[in-house]
Give the backbone structure.
Amino acid sequence: MNPRKRLLDLVLVVVLSAILVVPFSILLVVMIFKEGFPLFYVAERMKGVGQPFWLWKLRTMTVAQTEVGVSGGDKLGRITPLGAFIRRARMDEVPQIWNVLKGDMSFVGPRPPLRDYVERFPEIYAQVLKSPTGITGLASLRFHDREEALLAACTSAEETDRVYSEQCVPQKARLDLIYQKNWSVCFDLKLIWETGTGILIRRFFKGDKA
C-alpha cells in the first residue's frame, strides 16, 4: 500500500475511533437488548487474488444456517428493523476500522469481493485488486443505489447471482479502475467527504426513520 495512503488511514483510524467510541458503544447495548447475539457478522472476503481475510460488520439480518452470495431481494425479509436503520446510517461498516488498522483494507478503495467472484472473474479482479480494498470508494458512491435497486428486484439466489455477475461486477470494476488510475490523497479525502455528507443527507433530509 502507498505509504501516504497508509498514513491517511492510520490518522483516520485514530480520529474516527475517538469520535465513534461512545455512539458505537451505545448502539451495541441497544443491539443486545433488541436483537441479542451475535452482534457481529464476520465473513471471508478477498483483498487480492488468493489473499482472503475476515471482514467485520455489524449484524443486520436474522441469523441463517448458511450464508452465501451477495444480498438481493431474496434476503430482504431477513433484515431486522434495527438492521435497516444501521444500514442506512452505514454503522454496519464501523467494525471495518479494525480491518483498516490491520492493513487488510483502506478507508477508500474497491469493496472487497467474495472469493467466488474473484475465482470466476480472475482477469477483472487481478486488475481491480491492485488497489487496496476499501470501506467506501468511487464505485460505492456512484453505483450503490443502482446496484441496490437491481439486486432488490431479484427473487432468488440464482437470479441475484446472475444479475450481480452480468451487470454489477463489470460496472463496478470500470469505476474501480477509474479510481485506481486517478488515485491521490486528495481524491481519497474527496470520496470520504462525499460518503459522510451522503450519509447525513439520507438520514436527515430524506425522511429515514430508525
Observations:
- The chain is about 55% helix and 10% strand.
- The mean pLDDT is 92.
- The two ends are 37 Å apart (CA to CA).
